[in-house]
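Cross-posting from the chemistry board since nobody answered there.

I work mostly on the small-molecule side, so proteins are not my area. We synthesized pyridoxal-5'-phosphate and want a rough idea of how it might sit in this target. Sequence and SMILES are below. Is it possible to get a predicted 3D structure of the two together?
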Amino acid sequence: MNQYSSNKNHPQRINFKNPIDFRSDTVTLPSNAMLRSIENAQLGDDVYGEDQEVNELQEYAAKLLDKEAALFFPSGTQSNLTAMLSHCQRGDEVLIGKNYHTNVYEARGASVLGGVGICPIETSATGSMNIEDMLNQIKDDDPHYAVTKLLCLENTFSGQVQPQSELDKLAKSAHSKNLKVHLDGARLFNAHIKTGLSMKQLTSSFDSVSICLSKGLGAPVGSLLVADQETIYKAHRLRKMLGGGMRQVGVIASCGMYALKNNIQRLQEDHDNAKILAEGLSSLEELSVDFSESQTNMVFVSCPEQHRESLERFLFDKEIIISNLDRGRLVCHLGIDEKDIHFVINAFKEYFKVTA
Ligand SMILES: *Cc1c(COP(=O)(O)O)cnc(C)c1O
C-alpha cells in the first residue's frame, strides 16, 4: 500500500455537485479568476522562447527563490528528472531518501532514461536523513564504485516540514564532498507558510529546487525547476529531449503566475483546516489520527479493518472522498473550506454513532 495504490479512481465523482475530495491537493480546480488570466495571456511559441507568460513566470519564480533562472515543466516528475540528469552523467549515482517521491514514485526515470544509479538512504517517519548515513554512502574514488554526484532531498515530506537546520547541514556536508544538492520542493510553499522562513532561506543551500504549481497552489498544470544559469541551460536541452518542449504554453503558465501571486498566503487556511480536522477526528476512539507538530495540510487516519469499507462508502454517499483508511491521507486544499471540515467531522461521528 502506498499513497497512490490507496487513492482509488472515482469516475462517479464527475456527477457530484459539491465533492469534498481529500485524496490529494492535486484535485483542485482552477478558480474563475485564474481562468480569466488565460484570456489576457500574451502567447507565443515557447520553443522559440517567445511566450511572454512563460518568460515572465520563469523570471518571477527565479526571483522569488533567489536563484539565477527557472524553467517551466509540465510536471514535477519531469522537473526532478531533468534536475537529476542535469547534475549527473551516465554511470553517476544520486543519493535519495528511501521514502522520497524521487525514489519511489517517479518510475526510476533517472536510471531508465539517464543511466544514473539511485542509492536510497534510510529516512525517519518524519522524513529526516541522518548525516552519517548519507556520508557513508558517498563512494570513494575507486574503479569498483559508481561516482556519487548528487544528493536529493524533499520538503515538505508527507506534509511535514523538515527542520531547516538539518537540511542545511546535509547540504553543507554533501557540498564538502563535491556533490550537488537538489531539493524536491513540490510543496515548499506549505513549508514557507508553516515556518515563516522566506523562500530564499528555504532554498539557499540547494543547487536546484523543483516546485509544483498544481498542488496546494491550485494551478491546473505545471512545475518549475529553479537553479543557476548553467544548470538551467543544460536542463533546457534535456527538457526538449524528454518531450517537454511546449508551444503556446502561456495558457497554463498564466494560471501558474496567478497561483504564485494569489494562492500562497491562503495555504494557512489549509493548515488550519487540517488541524481542526485532526482534532475533530481524534475525539473518535475508533480512529487513530496522526497529525505531528511539523504537519502542514495532511492528516493521516487509520481505522479498524471491519469499518474501513463501510465507512468509506458511508462518506462517499455524502460526496466525501477519502483514500483507503488503513492509513488514509486526508489532504486539505483550496477546494475544501472550514464549513466542509465540520461537515466531514460530523459525518464521521454520525457513522460511529449509527454503527455503535
Ligand atoms: C507531486 C509530487 C511531485 C511531482 O509529481 P507530478 O505528479 O509529476 O507533478 C514530486 N515530489 C513530491 C513530493 C510530490 O508530492
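Reply from a structural biologist on the board:
Welcome over. Reading the output above for you: The longest strand covers residues 147-154. Residues 1 and 86 are 32 Å apart (CA to CA). Happy to explain the C-alpha cell format if needed.
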